[in-house]
């Protein structure tokens, strides 16, 4: 259940992080890695191997001697932040790691994971509640070997400045995100044929403007239960201001009724459930993700195992910025918004996203094949 929610949260969260302009002539994953489309399967395998190795090595790393790990697919390495360098020969001599030594890179680092967790917790539990900063992203980023505090649009806000000043004691990295206007958004250069299939990432419009379809969810009742199963579309909670908001899907100006929001949450976890019992009969729901601008129009959802290493790729499909991919920079991130709402357990990536993408699905490519989409 937890995964289910934080995947949604990611989307809310990345909407103000707009750093990278990605060229869409290729598959988004190929442009992320700077490779040709045909090389994607090989790089996915490298990523899988590194993720596995990352999992193998982590249990041997003492939090007080090491400062986190991340993978780099292009370099084919697992990087290990090393505070106590005399631990390196000990780790290297472990029989469990003998065959992987070429793939391990020990990086000198100053901050132990123990210290990073401590300062992160101090900042979250004491300083955030005391200063109530606005639109701030806080997480431990192993690649920076630090707690990173990123400020959204209010960098000159007095409240935020006081908060930042108070955090300096712990030595975090402070980043100022580009202002909302400065991001480059992709042009709508991939007008699609009219088709009324609803996939993850497609537009839905409620009372707060554009949002995106996340994925299908089914409510199970226990074994004695004989009621019909209920299907929902999952999207972001902040897509509505109240319950029972009606959502439509738009295709070239035509509105198709999707359903009404029957449950939502904005605090801690950001999600909303749209009941689709009365959905327009012409709409067909697909357990897939819209692959905007690619030859394969839909990506089939095969599984929902979350990606698990810093540095692994993660993509999202949204109605505003379409399909983009980025690297995982942190897990367990925290976001405080302007209304004292705090979201937790977030994954931060560096991929392009914007308002309107909210609620859209986040996923990673498990396998990549070049076949025609066979949906009709
Ligand atoms: C991609 O393929 C083209 C032609 O096959 C080649 O010229 C180019 O160097 C390749 N790019 C990369 C990043 O491998
Ligand atoms: C992944 O690991 C397997 C087993 O160690 C190895 O055979 C394979 O060549 C690796 N793949 C890549 C792309 O490095
Ligand atoms: C980590 O190292 C510290 C000091 O070297 C030691 O006190 C602690 O017990 C170690 N922790 C684990 C889990 O091995
Ligand atoms: C670093 O690791 C070595 C080897 O385990 C240990 O003897 C030493 O006490 C450690 N240094 C610190 C500062 O923890
Ligand atoms: C560790 O801290 C020292 C002193 O502040 C600094 O000179 C050095 O660059 C730091 N090392 C890393 C890897 O950040
Ligand atoms: C910044 O923090 C220090 C101590 O944490 C405090 O003495 C100082 O007044 C603060 N400055 C501002 C401008 O708030
Ligand atoms: C951003 O856009 C708004 C209106 O769209 C404008 O008022 C504001 O000055 C712009 N900010 C920057 C930094 O360009």
UniProtKB/TrEMBL annotation:
Signal sequence segment: 1-25
Keyword Signal tagged: yes
Keywords: Signal
Domain of life: Eukaryota
GO molecular function: serine-type endopeptidase activity
Keyword presence, S-adenosyl-L-methionine: no
Peptidase S1 domain span: 202-363
InterPro entries: Peptidase_S1_PA, Peptidase_S1_PA_chymotrypsin, Trypsin_dom, TRYPSIN_HIS
Protein's GO biological process: proteolysis
Protein name: S1 family peptidase
Organism field: Gigaspora margarita
